[in-house]
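Notes from hallway chat w/ T.B., transcribed later so I don't forget. T.B. wanted the structure written out for a chain they're using in a teaching module, and asked if we could keep both sequence and structure tokens in one place. Agreed to drop them here.
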Amino acid sequence: MVKTKTVYVCQECGAQSPRWQGKCVSCNAWNSLVEESLTPADPRRPTASYKEQPVLLSEIQHNDESRYQTGIRELDRVLGGGIVQGSVTLIGGDPGIGKSTLSLQIGCSLSDSGLKVLYVSGEESVKQTSLRAKRISSSDPKSLYIVNQVDLNAILDYIKKMSPDVVVIDSIQVIYNSEIASSPGSVSQVRECSAILTHLAKSKGIALFIIGHVTKEGMLAGPRVLEHIVDTVLYFEGERYSSYRILRATKNRFGSTNEIGLFEMMSTGLTEVPNPSEIFLSERASNTSGSVIVPILEGTRPFLVEIQGLVSRSSFNMVRQKAQGFDINRLALLIAVLDKRIGLNMADKDVFLNVVGGVRLMDPAADLGVVLAMATALLDKSVDRSTVVVGEVGLSSEVRSVSQLALRVNEAQKLGFKRCIVPKNNLKAKIELPTDLIEVFPVETVREALDLLEQF
């Protein structure tokens, strides 16, 4: 018989140690080592015979990939046009943010289109899942099967017997394999169960959705290999007390990772938000300093967000710099540009920055809006309500060009804005801007942008 070996595995990064330690030497996490039983492979076990043989690249037949349309346009955009057959999608997010709700909405919508869907609920009973399905779906799904099961072998038997088109696992942390001695949710269980389910989905051409829990740091619980074996990783973002949710793809083998989907959590489930700009600007205050509107671009979708800045004299020996929805390191760099290049005294000031609506800005074109929000907050000057700004700021306070300027300006014009401050270098490419209803002001430096705001 093969001797069973005991190891201690870190639940954060998956590193193994022969003995228990208070701190993981790989990821520096405290109290994350858990004892697990490791059974090495039996050398007497016969080796598997492989039927598939290597083939030439030129001999492979190319077929157009078929996708399932979920009927949820925001989700289809994030996935790259729909669900690819045989793909594995991992959905992560904070507890209660809407992972199970979205997965059940996907199952109901695909069932209405005639696909056979198997929803494996390991955390809720069949009756609880049925009540939620009736609340979020207006129709009665005819081909949606629900089962409460946490045993991996039983789930595999269901899949092989039913041959569904789509399978939803809610969640992977409660699924366990009886051949592994460790408890459900451990690194070994999560890794092995995900690998087996992924292999079955690939071999049978089944679209698989896996729901994963997140840690306190917002990362998916379990080893990082869980993100490597799947095709798509979707993250739910949003403030805890806000009804708006942002779905972002951090990995996508069948589409772009720059697209986002915006939803609103309501009593009937997650509802699409077709025009995010109106939502983010609906509660904007008038005649207040430190408020700037910026047209950002997420993938192919432009929308406008409000950036709020607050600068006050520090009451402590060490100043504070806080940002919500913006990179704190980038904020420190822009503060240094204002202090050194523009001559605004920011050394003894507390700086607070907020992106309204829970949006997390990744677009460098928001730099000019952040700089102007801080500058006007320090000078206590309000920004004209009909003005938007866009541009990337360099270390010499120069305003650099941005991508897809015409899309950004067109979005601002649709919402009734009259003026737009843009980088001067963008106009050298002789792009056609919709200047019939909006006036464009090119600038080269941050100083020029500040002077323009005083004139408006």
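Follow-up for T.B.: Residues 45-49 have pLDDT under 50 and may be disordered. Might be a good example for the class.
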